[in-house]
Write a structure and sequence with these properties.
The chain is an alpha/beta fold. The chain has one domain: Alpha-Beta Complex (Protein-Tyrosine Phosphatase, Chain A), CATH 3.90.190.10. 44% of the residues lie in helices and 10% in strands. It is built from 9 helices and 5 strands, in the order E-E-H-E-E-H-H-H-E-H-H-H-H-H. The chain has helices at residues 34-42, 87-92, 103-109, 111-123, 138-149, 156-173, 186-205, 209-215, 220-229; strands at residues 17-20, 23-26, 45-50, 75-78, 127-131. A 5-stranded mixed β-sheet has the order 1-2-5-3-4. Helix 4 packs across helix 9 and helix 5 runs antiparallel to helix 6 (156-173). The longest helix has 20 residues, at 186-205. The two termini are 13 Å apart.
Amino acid sequence: MIQSGDEPQWEGAVNARHVLGSIYRMGRREWLTNVGWQQAHADGVETVIDLRNPEEVRRRPTDPQIDEAATAGILIINAPTEEPGHPVFERLAVPYMNHPRMYPVNLEIFPERITEVFHQIAAARGKIVLHCSAGRDRTGLIVSMLLKLANRTDLLESQYAASLRGINEWHKISPVKHPHESYIEEPDLIAPLNERLEALGVFLDSLGVESFLLENGLHPDELEAIKQKMV
């Protein structure tokens, strides 16, 4: 039986793992090969929710070529967690939203966008993959809220730590060098990881996820549907 944290065998997937119930997470979907898409669909994935801004959604020259048939049966939804060019957010999220200490700012400035992600999760068919670019912080924000909603905060640290290490390992071998991040050796990763986990804990201790979502337009039936997807 698949366990939280298990890595699915989807060819090309980067930083991919099972979260809970029917929820998965990963880095940008353009890394998946034709075979990877077929493997994800065979595992029951029918919905992919892309948390990136629309201008980030593009194929790179090093990404695999994908046949249209490869994604047959999988609905891809773009539901960004932020608004590009927002002056306050861009001033605070430097160089981008890349740390749990920025999660409260994201919710404060864009509550309707965060709630829209949860509308999409509630309505989604089949198993669901959440992803952003790295699969770490925008994805981590939504995943952390889902885990608190499911009363599985015991999984928060392992999920975030795996996502941090997962994209760090990718930086080691990526054919496209990141403009702001690079591979960090494990001994040097411990301190920043612990600092991030502390910020994540502070964020979730201060947030009533149910009340936040209901106050921002999620229907109680949708809330229940989301909980069922994490059983």
